[in-house]
Design brief:
Subcellular location: Nucleus
Number of strands: 0
Shape: globular
Radius of gyration: 22 Å
GO molecular function, one term: DNA-binding transcription factor activity, RNA polymerase II-specific
Number of helices: 22
GO cellular component, one term: nucleus
Order of helices and strands: HHHHHHHHHHHHHHHHHHHHHH
Protein name: Zn(2)-C6 fungal-type domain-containing protein
InterPro entries: Fun_TF (IPR021858), Zn2-C6_fun-type_DNA-bd_sf (IPR036864), Zn2Cys6_DnaBD (IPR001138)
């Protein structure tokens, strides 16, 4: 028998507190001076059958609300006491963006759904008490709405974005003057703004500027954060974002690996397990992306040098390859384990790309076949498909079969249609460019950044 869902307010559900269901403001929210928000019933869970069906079926949640901005559907609007917490929630469009984040936008940030999504149960309560996080969250929600539906809320969205930027400058000033307790708000805000830029296919480098700011903040912030759940959430969000940076750049990343190791150690030393922000069940694999990228490029450079590859570099590649190959996902359901296997396979492909003629290597062909087999099992409707851009772009140069290329293009095309993110569209263009025969296939681990140069884009592959 299915579990009966509570009809309590959003904040009581997030805080796991009993709600007396008094509207518009329940007793618990009034007592704790919190925004009392009432959401619609969540959509029925979708059955995940086969990858083939996933290619044909559009996300039901997206289809449900196509006409939302025109009518401002009352079932998604929040019944709030706006003057008690935030005057802006008295405005229907702002109120709607808050509700849309809870109902849909938060899901685009995590492979976990519903109550298990940390952007719902950790970030939203934080936004209820922090104006800077509140503004960034609404701006992100508006960008996702624009990507998936229309630009009807653009003015409201960018108004909140401007307020988030202004608040960011003010809060940074307070932080510099030893208000270190504001660090968690700053890190959460900057990471949200970074995700916003990436998902709208930022080509001006704004995402990288946000990331540089974040790298300056995390050390002090993590040291002064005494909430283990919040610390674990921020550490994993930061780890995921930072791990993919080397794949987007050709030039060496200054101390990037040290920062990744710091985030990973913070996650390991935390008293709660990884929240599954985007890393899912495989934070170790995300941590390894930067190291595998650097080793593969260094070995590729040595192979093209007259002296040939050094024993030291070959051994380093072998050790890393063995570590990745022997890794097993822990404490994961079947879907999370499969997406972890996709990343594991892509990392092995990345390490083999360093050798001349790697695409003809028997081991490489087997890895490509394994990855495509995994894709055939993972339905496009699964929330895990939001993190497929990096592994597919990494493996693409080694996919020789036109049939396999066509399948990957079809599969990822369905992912693009599901999420409608700008960075996903750019990844789709990368795949097409790599397979167009412009000699990019011969450039091994440098293929992705050089293809990005050809396209004129500069973004994080996530």
């Amino acid at each position: 028998m299915p579990r009966q869902r509570s009809n309590g307010c959003i904040l009581c559900k997030l805080r796991r507190k009993k709600c007396d269901e008094r509207k518009p403001t329940c007793v618990a929210c009034a007592r704790n001076v919190l925004l009392c928000a009432w959401g619609s019933n969540p959509p029925a869970s979708k059955s995940h059958k086969s990858g083939g069906k996933g290619l044909k079926t559009k996300s039901q949640r997206l289809a449900r609300h196509q006409s939302v901005p025109k009518n401002m559907r009352t079932d998604m609007a929040l019944s709030a006491a706006p003057n008690a917490i935030h005057p802006q929630l008295a405005h229907p469009k702002t109120n709607f963006l808050y509700s849309f984040f809870y109902a849909q936008a938060a899901q685009t940030l995590s492979i976990k759904e519903g109550d298990g999504n940390p952007f719902v149960y950790i970030l939203m309560p934080m936004a209820a008490t922090s104006d800077i996080v509140f503004q960034a969250m609404l701006a992100f929600s508006g960008v996702i709405y624009e990507q998936q539906h229309s630009d009807a809320l653009a003015a409201t969205t960018w108004g909140h974005y401007a307020q988030a930027i202004r608040s960011l400058k003010h809060t940074l000033t307070l932080y510099v003057h030893n208000q270190v307790d504001r660090g968690t708000e700053l890190v959460a805000t900057v990471l949200l703004l970074l995700s916003l830029e990436v998902m709208k296919a930022d080509s001006d480098g704004h995402a990288f500027r946000h990331l540089r700011a974040c790298r300056e903040l995390v050390s002090g912030t993590f040291a002064h954060c005494h909430n283990p759940h919040l610390l674990g959430f921020l550490a994993e969000y930061y780890l995921y974002t930072l791990s993919l940076l080397p794949s987007s750049l050709i030039e060496p990343s200054d101390l990037i690996e040290e920062d990744i190791d710091f985030a990973f150690r913070t996650l390991l030393n935390n008293s709660v397990p990884a929240t599954g922000v985007l890393c899912g069940c495989a934070p170790e694999m995300f941590r390894t992306i930067s190291k595998a990228t650097m080793v593969s490029r260094r070995l590729y450079d040595e192979f093209t040098d007259e002296a040939g590859p050094s024993v030291e570099c070959l051994q380093e590649r072998l050790d890393l390859y063995d570590y990745i190959q022997s890794w097993l996902p822990e404490h994961a359901d079947e879907e999370y384990a499969m997406i972890a296997r996709v990343y594991q396979t892509a990392l092995l492909v990345l390490l083999l790309q360093a050798e001349p003629g790697a695409s003809e290597n028997m081991a490489m062909n087997e890895l490509v076949t394994n990855l495509i087999s995994l894709l055939r099992i993972i339905p496009v409707e699964s929330s895990t498909t939001t993190v497929l851009a990096w592994p597919l772009a990494t493996v693409a140069p080694c996919v020789k079969s036109s049939t396999d290329q066509e399948f990957i293009q079809q599969y990822f095309g369905a992912v693009v249609q599901k999420y409608r993110f700008g960075n996903h569209r750019q990844t789709e263009q990368l795949l097409q460019l790599i397979w167009s025969g412009r000699d990019l296939q011969q450039q091994g681990p440098y293929c992705i950044p050089r293809a990005m140069e050809v396209l004129g884009c500069r973004f994080l592959l996530c």
